[in-house]
Amino acid sequence: MSSRRTFLRSGSGVLATGLLGGVAGCVGLDDLLGGSDDPATDWVVDPLVLDANHVSFTSIALSSVADHAQHLRTEDWEAMQRSVLDAYDFVRFLPDEVDRYDRVRSRGGSGAYEVFAADVDGDRIARNLRDREYFSRGEYEEFEVYLDDGEDRAVAFDDTHLVVTDTDRDPYRMVQDVLDTATGNRDGFREVDEDFDTLVGELPSGDQVVAFTRERPEETNAETGTFRNNVASGFSTDVTGEETEMRLVLVFLDNSDVVEGDVDTWIGTDSTFDTIRDVDVETDGRTATVTGTIRTRDYGETL
């Protein structure tokens, strides 16, 4: 049984940290999310790999956004490029060379890693790593693997992906776990966590996606976007030109925990929603979904 309530609003822009601030506590392409064969979520590991019970996942389809860069504010587009392209000094990609950038971080544990889906120049990266005192650990799952001299970072790459791990534990073991997950030799987050799998199943493809699980709140404070037994949340954006479509999904422990009136209260009191047009709310099973439209020139505010 599903229900829907539509809110018609005018305005532009959406502050993603405002939208997810209450439900997240804190958070950070084509065919990005929404299918069991999805290449992005295949890289999301079991949280135990990061010594955690929960992880947050962020993904940006940079080359897809680049196709609409003329509709973005210049400072926003430059900031997005810097956040992805200037992460490491041993590799330099152009915006249209990065099909997807993923970041996975532990929530309450240790460790994080990043994945670049791109046209990788392995010979150049290997030279740059050796110049920075990284040393080769040979191949694993057909990926070249390098460790830094302090052995707290691992870098792995083939022709189409670059993986960088940072951890307090054994970085070589961590990069093995990430690659085993991506190749299907180890269960990933979707296989071991029903809440994350439900969330991913409700999020469509998009140019930016954030998804995470969390410890469930014991009480509801609808005005701040905190909901009892909200176990997973996420959003996706799809830049279509001058406009960008947004989808926010909340997953609850049980169908009975979904209180549409609480979501309505959140939308009616949080000023962030005043700037989203055509806000629509739908509940179905143990999920609540909020959709709306923003002007692409305000897209940077969602980062």
Summarize the SSE layout with pairings.
Blueprint: E1 2-7, H1 16-24, E2 54-60, H2 62-66, H3 74-85, E3 98-107, E4 112-118, H4 122-131, E5 135-140, E6 143-147, E7 153-157, E8 161-166, H5 171-182, H6 189-192, H7 194-202, E9 208-213, E10 230-239, E11 243-252, H8 260-269, E12 277-284, E13 287-295
Antiparallel strand pairs: 1-12, 2-3, 2-9, 3-4, 4-8, 5-6, 6-7, 7-8, 9-10, 10-11, 11-13, 12-13
Could you provide a short overview of the structure?
This protein is α+β, with helices and mostly antiparallel strands and 303 residues long.
Order of helices and strands: EHEHHEEHEEEEHHHEEEHEE
Output the structural class: alpha+beta
| CATH topology grouping of the largest domain | Protein Transport Mog1p, Chain A
CATH-derived architecture of the largest domain: 3-Layer(aba) Sandwich
- The helix content is 10-25%
**How large is the count of helical segments?**
8
Overall geometric form: globular
CATH first level of the largest domain: which class? Alpha Beta
Q: What is the count of distinct domains?
A: 2
Radius of gyration: 20 Å
Q: How would you state the average pLDDT, rounded?
A: 84
- Structure summary, number of beta strands: 13
Poorly predicted spans: 1-18, 24-38
Strand percentage lies at 25-35%
Strand order of the largest sheet: 1-12-13-11-10-9-2-3-4-8-7-6-5
Distance between the termini: 34 Å
Largest beta-sheet characterization: 13 strands, antiparallel
Give your account of this protein's structure.
The structure is a single chain. The chain is 23% helix and 31% strand. The protein is an alpha+beta fold and 303 residues long. Strands 1-12-13-11-10-9-2-3-4-8-7-6-5 form a 13-stranded antiparallel beta sheet, sandwiched between helices. The chain is globular.
